[in-house]
Amino acid sequence: MGVRPSRGIGPALCAAFLLVALATPAAAQPAGETECDTDFLEIAPGISACGFSLSRTGAFSKDGDVLADPLIAAYEDDGSAQKPIAAGQAILFPPSPSGRFRIVQACDGTGANALCWSVLLLDAEEEEFRKSLAGHYGPERWQSWGPEGRFVALTNSEEGARWLYMIEAESGESHAFPPFDLQENWTIDLQSLRWIKPGSLTVKVKTCETCAVEDKMLQF
Q1: Are the CB atoms for 121 and 169 separated by under 8 Å?
Q2: Last residue of a domain, one of 82, 100, 132
């Protein structure tokens, strides 16, 4: 018996398929990440972003609610006491995966000469800041959140040496690697950083200029 050739789909059937396709609602696309989730944002008087704003007197607000008044960038000694310096700019780091925590860097002004060594951890759930530390001059614009969003790694470099800082989100407590009393000049491959569990990671490190690269396990 010969094989009967296919007659194809007729014009009427094609039209029916087209009507069904047009009548069927398209599947909803997952919402994409925005700059509020991924970017390092500069907030200053007159420059707001993602609901955050900073007044000329240093009041830091989220959606109209004042979280710090003022947001303190530094202190100066006036001879009798430490006088707070209100922030003239704030750098917002991308939030933790849950959105609860965010690193905020407070600067004493704007521009290339501004000092941004004040590092704070904003808890959006509690609406409060926790003081932290990430180098004498503040962290670079890089971060890595660990699993469960309980720890974040920041980095900075000074005079050819690099440090990694592991910060606990709940407390703001910071551990430096290498420890300051170790007096080693590390070269750290940030792209090699891998979290093992909350508070524990591995990263490729050279502990001196002539040393071989090694995998370091760092724990909080």
Answers
A1: yes
A2: 132
What are the DSSP calls for 103-172, one per residue?
Answer: EEEEESSSSTT----EEEEEETTTTEEEEE---TT---S--EE-GGGSEEEEEEEETTEEEEEEEETTT-
Examine residue 31 and state whether it is found in any structural domain, yes or no.
no
CA distance 76 to 74: 7
**Residue whose pair of structure tokens reads 């010969």 in the numeric block:** 2
* pLDDT interval class at 52 (50, 70, 90): very high
pTM of the model as a whole: 0.82
Residue pair 166/173 in contact (Cβ under 8 Å)? The answer is no
Please count the residues of the chain.
Answer: 220
Q: Is 16 part of any domain?
A: no
- Cα–Cα distance, 142 to 170 (Å, whole number): 20
Kindly report which listed range (6-20, 126-140, 199-213) carries the lowest average pLDDT score: 6-20
Q: Which domain holds residue 54?
A: 36-132
pLDDT of amino acid 180 = 87
The answer to whether residues 102 and 183 belong to one domain is no
